[in-house]
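Researcher: We are triaging several targets before committing to wet-lab work. For this one, the compound of interest is 2-acetamido-2-deoxy-beta-D-glucopyranose. I'm pasting the protein sequence and the ligand SMILES. What I need is the predicted three-dimensional arrangement of the protein with the ligand bound, expressed as structure tokens, so it can go straight into our comparison scripts without reformatting.
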Amino acid sequence: MKVPTLLTQAIGLALFFGVAVEANAYSRTDACHPHHPFKPLPASHARHKTCHVPSHGNGKDDSANILSTLKRCNNGGKVVFDADKTYTVGKAMDLTFLQHVDLEILGTVQFTNDTDYWQANAFKQIYQNATTFFQLGGTDVNVYGDGTLDGNGQVWYDLYAEDALILRPILVGIIGLQGGTIGPLKLRYSPQWYHFVANSSNVLFEGIDISGYSKSAHTAKNTDGWDLYRSTNIVIQDSVINNGDDCVSFKPNVTDIVVQNLHCNGSHGISVGSLGQYKGEVDIVENVLVYNISMFNASDGARIKVWPGVSSALSTDLQGGGGSGSVKNITYDMMTIDNVDYAIEVTQCYGQSNLTLCNEYPSSLTISDVHFTNIKGTTSGKYDPVVGTIVCSSPDVCSDIYATEIDVTSPSGDNSFTCKNVDDSLLDVNCTTSS
Ligand SMILES: *[C@@H]1O[C@H](CO)[C@@H](O)[C@H](O)[C@H]1NC(C)=O
Ligand SMILES: *[C@@H]1O[C@H](CO)[C@@H](O)[C@H](O)[C@H]1NC(C)=O
Ligand SMILES: *[C@@H]1O[C@H](CO)[C@@H](O)[C@H](O)[C@H]1NC(C)=O
Ligand SMILES: *[C@@H]1O[C@H](CO)[C@@H](O)[C@H](O)[C@H]1NC(C)=O
Ligand SMILES: *[C@@H]1O[C@H](CO)[C@@H](O)[C@H](O)[C@H]1NC(C)=O
Ligand SMILES: *[C@@H]1O[C@H](CO)[C@@H](O)[C@H](O)[C@H]1NC(C)=O
Ligand SMILES: *[C@@H]1O[C@H](CO)[C@@H](O)[C@H](O)[C@H]1NC(C)=O
Ligand SMILES: *[C@@H]1O[C@H](CO)[C@@H](O)[C@H](O)[C@H]1NC(C)=O
Ligand SMILES: *[C@@H]1O[C@H](CO)[C@@H](O)[C@H](O)[C@H]1NC(C)=O
Ligand SMILES: *[C@@H]1O[C@H](CO)[C@@H](O)[C@H](O)[C@H]1NC(C)=O
């Protein structure tokens, strides 16, 4: 997908009219469409010098070149990764010192396949054992250029099949970024999640093109498009995601999020959660607007997944349950689905296959003020005649969950929903199981 670089356009226009490019040269808020962010995003300041990153070529590590160029051009510069070059990164780069700087990536940045090095040295982000190839943070940073970041994932997909406890790096770590635009960019072959965004605020992602399939029998697992954590006022828009896990996922303590105009293919949907994974922790997800999503070949369209009140094991490397918190003011408006197992899935029994056990220990994480509206299309038929499921673990923990203008059928024309422990008078769907 080609997305116009609003940033370049704004600066280009300013130069054309001969005006000095000053603060407010580029408004991130105006770039958000049709919905604006919950709070205005800070405008980007002008850049006044350009530095090109040299590359060794032949697969030799360029991380020192990248670091020194970023340091030289930080505070008001633009750092260019040239179009005809491939930059090899063989060392974990801490880029949390960035201030008022642009990274224009025209060429390709490829991370090495040295799985021993990365397992020992990738940045540990603690949450869910996440590690990242690099961590980018600071203030007012723009990364664009429509070039490619390549995670060299194949070696990781194959290794993970042998040992599910290896730590596979995340391609893009946005850690502690206050004010920034990420995209347009092409992201390829991430070893696991494509983006981990933590401790960040006021960031716009746009024009991100994600793809990367395994060439062996070992599928690329856990390739979420975005995982947001401890972050606020983020916009994700105008992007194409071809992956094999959540298209976008809102993890603990994420507020004021707009996600709009996405094409997701092969994913697990746009997910709140999983939440409540860690006993004794309080997880909050509040004020999320998901608008205008096309969802193809997915397990879910709109999804809220909460671990039960009892510990459970989803897989070797993913266990949890027993945490508390709240999910509040979540809107899914306008989604078209095709070949999706559940159009809507709300569960408080995530990771636990024993339903009896789940009902014995209801989740203490509350879900309220949730709106599913204007969702249409055809499911895969996997759960025929059921096309959606809204199941809370007790009536006390779920309130004000609405479904309106839902026009979803299975290939055979059925349209049943499984509804439990929710007020089905607020659900304008055909609930077949109620209690
Ligand atoms: C890792 O990359 C090197 C250099 O590009 C290459 O020679 C080697 O075959 C790769 N190893 C694997 C397991 O893909
Ligand atoms: C975020 O900030 C908190 C508090 O400063 C810190 O403990 C944590 O390591 C940071 N990073 C992540 C990924 O949570
Ligand atoms: C983190 O890794 C440890 C050791 O590999 C494993 O026991 C644990 O289940 C992992 N935790 C998560 C949340 O993935
Ligand atoms: C999330 O926010 C809640 C409420 O402020 C707090 O108790 C909890 O420690 C936070 N969790 C994380 C992981 O930051
Ligand atoms: C919805 O998103 C698509 C891109 O996926 C875009 O082409 C279309 O204009 C958007 N529609 C609205 C109403 O914003
Ligand atoms: C979805 O991805 C598959 C490859 O797994 C591809 O064949 C198909 O064309 C894609 N469809 C859409 C609608 O993007
Ligand atoms: C709830 O989210 C909507 C956007 O979907 C927003 O307009 C509204 O202000 C939010 N409510 C509160 C109380 O923040
Ligand atoms: C994905 O969806 C598209 C459009 O519905 C379809 O043409 C394609 O065959 C699907 N691909 C897979 C891998 O299911
Ligand atoms: C499910 O949990 C119940 C209640 O703890 C227990 O009696 C039952 O044996 C469990 N079933 C399975 C298949 O583990
Ligand atoms: C419920 O099912 C009937 C029969 O298929 C259909 O006419 C009606 O539109 C459905 N209602 C909703 C809200 O989907």
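Researcher: Any quick observations?
Model: The domain at 13-433 is CATH 2.160.20.10 (Pectate Lyase C-like).
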